[in-house]
Amino acid sequence: MSEQYGPPESYDAPPAGVPSAGQPVPGPRTPPSPRRAQRAQARPAVPRWLGQLPYVFVLCGVAAGLAVVATDHFRRGSMLIAAAVFIGALARLVLPESQTGMLAVRRRWVDVLLMTAAAVGVTLVAFVAKGQ
């Protein structure tokens, strides 16, 4: 006895692109899909470019600190770099996820811990290093 595999012959599949009887036909009364509702809730309340400002401020602070270091003021430049990184840590701690831009790399507490440790480390190096 051989059994047939596949749908029984009495099964009539709807043509491609036509919804089956159990699915609602999209129209004005159809509720929005849950995915669309989640996307609408996830949209930030501020423009996208505004969320990058904390990152830009930290980047400018580090660049200014490097410029000061290049002019033979090691301690002042290092302190400026440490201050910029610490401000980045504070921004990551205080601001919501949608407004931190590229400062948000990992979980919030990991980002804050690493940036604070980097700022403290740069500060210690600035005070421990001997100047000319």
Automatic annotation (TrEMBL):
Name listed for the protein in its UniProt record: DUF3017 domain-containing protein
Disordered, as annotated region: 1-43
Keywords, comma-separated and alphabetical: Membrane, Transmembrane, Transmembrane helix
Compositionally biased intervals (Pro residues): 25-34
Matches recorded under Pfam families: DUF3017
Organism domain of life: Bacteria
Spans through the membrane: 53-70, 77-95, 107-129
Species whose genome carries this gene: Actinoallomurus vinaceus
